[in-house]
Amino acid sequence: MSYIRIRKHYLHLPYILLGAFEFGILFLSFYFLENLQQAFNISPASHVEYSPALALIYAIILSCGSLAMGVYLALMREGFLAMFFRTLVAYCFLGALALTILAEIWPYFYVGGNNLFWVVMLSTGFTLASRHFFSKLVNSDQLTRKIVVIGTGASARQLQRDYEKDKATLGVKVIGYIGSGQSDVASQYCLEKPTDWLSFCRENRISEIVVAQEERRKSDGVVFPLEELIRCKLGGIDVINAVGFYEREFNQVKLSLLSPSWIIFADGFTVSKTRDFAKRLFDIFISVALGIVLLPFVLFAAFLVFIETGRPILYSQVRVGQHGKLFKIYKIRSMRQDAEKGGKAVWASANDSRITKVGAFIRNTRLDEIPQIYNVLKGEMSFVGPRPERPEFVAELNESIPFYSHRHAVKPGLMGWAQLNYPYGASVEDARGKLEYDLYYSKNHSFMMDFLIMIQTIEVVLLGKGVH
């Protein structure tokens, strides 16, 4: 099993193990530092007692920096060099900055400038070595879980496209697709129907069978092998439908495969008054803290907008909130005053000519979104949740996209799962793609998932991802 489920959210086990191993490296770096300084005759800038508490805080902060910069996915998707530069940002910028700020607030955590440099360098060297070994290990054929897909129709073809696009980051290897007759899957990926499914799986070291047939009785030219799948299941071979496979491996709910019965009978989509209360307290605490910290930046952005294009500095828009309730969000204006002079809602587009020069800057840095902290304090929004859309767009999307209204089952948020995993949405098709991630969040949301989204949003802000 290459995944683990924590509070309903699927996480790939190899990354969890790598993160835990690196956490240990970061923790122990403090205790190696003193010996390293003696070996290279380095005089520390100040005497620091390397206590376990200090080492623990150091390890937590740098581990969060790694998550924030997406170093683990970058290692598999973009290669070692991209991961190396992200690690430098995570450790030398985010980590060092956080430790410096923490030391100013609480002097007990002061490490010393020279000491901090050497311990970060030591940590960087060890973690880069561990990630290099990890990348070789997870690509090993002996450790990869092999699966076979039943079906060669449209659903199987969609699964094949998505798998080929992201297979470097997945913990599985699709060895083929089983079907007969007309096939949407390329012939080189198709396999002959086995006469004995259990023997076939054991001979080819198949760990799991994914059912991607549109019709379970007879589809893609294959009579559904019910008895054979029961034998495989009892023989230790996992069997999963395509919706569940997408949810686990891609962390999304695939709309093209979704049926109302799945929503009704699937675990998740739960409502908890205790969690809602805890999330509300968390939202209030974070809103007040961030409001105080970010106030100077907001005033600076407001001043720039006023200098460039004058008033109004803030503007409001009606958005659709939880259970379809309408409310007004507030933003720092990033477009011309006449951006919608016709009074009709218009999708934002890439290189939108309505965006001012200052507006492009505050959009890239997300400063224009900061006033929505007020909406969070009012309880109309949460820090994490699906981004709220305008009612004009919602009416159109409800007609075009099945299950779209169900994204409003939870409070909208300043940041969300779809924003991390899908580019900026500026069309009906983009809204469909985002909905697949919003439904995953609605089904599986938890405090832990909210925390991961908040941490990973730092990468979106720093790298200016998904901005139009």
Describe the fold and architecture.
By secondary structure, this protein is of the alpha/beta class. The protein has 3 domains: about 5-140, no CATH class; about 145-250, Rossmann fold (3-Layer(aba) Sandwich), CATH 3.40.50; about 275-465, no CATH class. The protein is about 55% helix and about 10% strand. It contains 17 helices and 13 strands. It has helices spanning about 15-40, 50-70, 70-75, 80-105, 115-140, 155-165, 195-205, 225-235, 240-250, 260-265, 275-310, 355-365, 375-380, 390-400, 415-420, 430-445, 445-465; strands at about 5, 10, 145-150, 170-180, 190, 205-210, 220, 220-225, 240, 315-320, 325-330, 380-385, 415. The strands form 5 sheets. Strands 5-4-3-6-9 form a 5-stranded parallel β-sheet. A two-stranded antiparallel sheet has the order 1-2. Helix 14 (about 390-400) links the parallel strand 12 (about 380-385) and strand 13 (about 415). Helix 2 (about 50-70) crosses helix 17 (about 445-465). It is globular. It is a multi-pass membrane protein. Belongs to the bacterial sugar transferase family.
